């Protein structure tokens, strides 16, 4: 059951229904950016994504479906103790646990990438065959960062430790330290610099698993997503990604997050709009 | 005595001539954005487009021609009664009428998309065989919007009612409500998500009509044109468009507008620059 | 009774209670800026004021009271037909009527200044002895503006026509056309350039009336409130205004609005914060 | 035929007349910022000041007069060879010479402060009894700057060499190097940190001279004028300055400039608006 | 001795000497903002303050002295483990300890206000008679914040526990929760809303103690310091503060910090410039 | 030998070594933008490129090498006399001379494009077989600009005069005046609108020469590099360029510059990041 005291009230994504019971997907905002090294500011991400969603239609020409007829619930933002990483991760975990127990699909909005760790951990407990699709510019596979085990730069390394056969598929990776690229080779999982090619290449392999998708908005080139903490030139275009949407529809998505949207660095709000439009498509795929 | 040669004229697009009589094209700014739903601000568009035009050369390598030798006139901005949609549309219509009576080609700078309605109406009266090329992210084909018949979201629907055989060609459309996409199918006119493919595909068909071209700057991906009211991720690149310029040269363009440039949302001014560069090319095509 | 269908859901101001019945004050956002002549953008005002209110404490050291213990209700934003001034004013009027019938105090967030007209009209119907305190840089007393009777530049002129003995007190006025200053003299009502002096000067006179307070944020110098449509240098400081708060506590406030907050022109968000802090104090005065 | 009354002229300060002959004051923009050391950008100043002037009324409540009835001419911006200081100063000088020969009053908009040198030089030639009122945060009295004799940091030192009895009055000065403050003492001219006090203090002394007024916008505190190249905290308020306006009316102003407005550093445009409003008042004083 | 491995290289403040041995004051940047609740971004503060210092003269007209002749050392920024509050506080403490052991005066640049805790603790150990002058908009006297004992909102409460007789003097306080204002009354220490009055009032009392001065930039009104995390309208002006500088010269300052400068929220850079100018004056007072 | 007095101290690029002797490449910042015609501001480029370099990893997945192990030295910014073009060019020349005499490779960060002239001149003196690869949107081949021989718009024309057989290869050129395109044809050197195609096309020809590479950041489309003085729509993507990096590795690069990065026009900092990432790759190619 949803523990109301965990959440702060916000406006809802697009025209989210107020009926938790009937909803298949539950949106949760996670305003956390304590471990970020370069530019903080992602804690304003979830509110901004909701705000700009009012500029979108609810109909998707990519899927020829309208969100109007779908049931999804927006629970608001988690109420986190600022500066306390450990307690914050526990609250996120608790929130995910509630949603999974109610047999609903968690859809989380970051905040920094570290928030994906407790989510993947909880989803993997429920779905032992889980694979993770990871869209990102950075490998996020360090073993530690500034001496810390839990950080936005180590999050997929930690998540891997909870995945059967280290079922991780990475798309868009174009930055990291040598250690991370060696880790990738050693453990034989897959990391592609090109988003579209990589995805289509392995589609037949991962389509059979229950899937958790984590999307760091910096997978896009900074021209498409300037509002993020560690923009990395040389990324994919928005069209490259939208071309994949019909394939998303065929997947068994059991968890999803979009992270690292930092509104302050993007006066044009197009980063948040891009996140909001992707969220619309994903909700149409899972509801 | 004042030596005129010491001074730059502080306005006018590029180095517009002051000779109305000899000019073939007449530029008019329309600072109107009253019916906009998401982000107002396009009323500053016409001034900004002129201002940044000083950063452009007058020579086009795409057409190997220089605007220097061409005659076009910049009439300035229309003086509109703010908040009064009906009267404003009448003033726009009057302005277009004057220009058409003098056998000149109207080139209007928005402002919001609704300004295209009185223009297309007047041009269609003069050229009964008129077809419209519509570059946009949004179909703008609703029958009404918030109960209003005349709005930026209904403008092409209204315009269609004045076009023989509903001769509308849409390029770049990637957003709308279900009703609009159904209207497209019912009436058998053409709407393409891809700009370049769509344009080349139907070139032989529309090239024989007198043409009105209306270009909503949001046809471009928000990375290319962040300064607009309702940016829609997933659009075309600036190169996609400039590749079409040599084909524009072969068309019989009898009216043109660029709309929805909103300078406030683009500190880099590249949206206005893109509009100004397109305007240079179009003036070279029609003068 | 509150007609729910008039409103869009938003996050609430500070930690507004969800109990309409018990609330004495009702907050309503009015995202309207169609008649604005210089810089539009105030339609984003109400949402931003609520958003930044999370950076404020609920305790006021000026009044030694906490909003925590007070009952006020945030109804959300009115759902307006963009571009249609007439219908929009009717919806605002309807909303005010509902609130007044329920014997609650309307507290409206603009939006442009024109929204004050239907509010003052409705409040004056209920309280025939009503006087209006008007904080503004501009007199807003034109008879018409660009040929329009209803505009942000004529709003107080129109409102005066509904006030017994033209009971209007203006503070901070430092801009207008000659006609407006002559109107002031002819009708013998009071207009002060200095906010604090003017207010204290006439306090004993107006304190006995039921009062509607309308505050255009541009009464403050643009250094204190840069985020507004027609900033006018030479205004008062924030401290000048907060010094008046203890006197507000002694007044019989029966209606209130803050208008012309335009977030896009203020990256620092201090204009919205100033509005939010004033709103906190006013809510403490009336609840 | 084109109906001229439909259009607004897109440039010119406020509604400047097009009649050079009848005009007493001539406005000239000088887009030069080559010698600036900290933040360039003032070359966009003159255009922006004109642009925002459309947000001002032409009536001044400070002087109870309207610019509507006055004759002044806006010549546009000087066409300068970028990067060539020497030639640029000659062009400025030429422009001033023309205006003075026609017995008109030069009113120049910077650009950087160095532009005042050729102006003061030419005005002093015509009026040998000339005194200069200098509003600024910086003394600008270095003998050289980075080895250069002509720079924004040496401009008043150079100007002094053309003034009888070194008739320089400085107001608002709160920054400089030791050498400059010693130069002030040695030559016995007057420099005040406080604008209002200093001005009133010496009013009876300077009011009898023909006066050139040079106003560096950074005389205001950066909160009032953030859009400038070398903002210096601790300056005067806009009100402090407007209180002096009635006294300006009594002076014999024979030349005027406002310099160092840098629009790029001020998204709110209030620096340009402040400059435009001061310009309105000064034009009312001299026309 | 300075442990070099603790620091990252940066450009130095103004023209800081490279001679640690001879320097009396040691500048250290602390890029930490993990516990901030509203708007993060202060971690970029120290670098920006140094960057804009190049726009300042080294001569102070307030004190008639030049920083040129003074010895102070800029050690660079501390290299902190992002997201780990506990370890970060230890590193700050270590850095302060080194500097104090070498009989130098620590001058720290934040970062968030929590960094003052380890500094005050260490300075109080060395100077048992220490009093703290606290310039701030917020009391920062909560006992805990979101369940945390160590936070920017509790920092002075924690610091008090290390001060003999709770020798805390607060100036500019205009925000807090009821509990904090009651704590102030109970413990009989002094908190003033007005900066200048409060300071002058108690000057004779605190001037005899060794003093630690902690200045949260939000003590200034947001118009003077928009670039900060929790701006609070109604604060003091920059002039109010600079008027105190000659009195600072008479104090026995044994430690100093400026905190909460957040460059991202201030495009004009005036907040950083204000901090840099204050730092110049304080260095002149202690060197 | 490096003349220390020429340079101002800055933070270093990425983690530049402090060992000049062992370094093969020497980075120098050139904060000059005096001859720029449209938007100045590039003088802040070098500092910003260094600042954002902290957001990059030192490992390159494109070359599978880490900058960690390489020796390069960052000398800081040249201390230039603002406004004096001639002296500034001499200082740049002197700096290049020193570096070349020490048999190191000059790597300069602009500043405006004119800085490339003294660099190419000096490098061509040392390597008489030198060819220049020129990445830019503009041909920069005018003979004069506003009457000046030395300007950002004439720089490659001047440079050509020092190159044997006018060995100039231009990539990305999409703007210029007719004269420039005719000069290209007359002198038979090569200019391509497409970056990637052009480069690959002529690779076998130029790979045998010692090469100077000059990269004007506006070669990229303004969506990828909005922070520049004269953005020109229709340019290449960042990916187009990074695809060439492995080919760079095979070249004999003897001099390099990146110019025209103007941080003020790019709040997202992605232009500086793109420059920094290219610099990382080039350093890996030459060290």
From TrEMBL, chains A, B, C, D, E, F:
Keyword Metal-binding: yes
Gene Ontology terms for molecular function: agmatinase activity; metal ion binding
Entry note: cofactor: Binds 2 manganese ions per subunit.
Alphabetically ordered keywords of this record: Hydrolase, Manganese, Metal-binding
Enzyme Commission code: 3.5.3.11
Gene3D superfamilies: Ureohydrolase domain (3.40.800.10)
NCBIfam families: agmatinase (TIGR01230)
Family: Belongs to the arginase family. Agmatinase subfamily.
Protein's name according to its UniProt entry: Agmatinase
Organism listed in the record: Thermovenabulum gondwanense
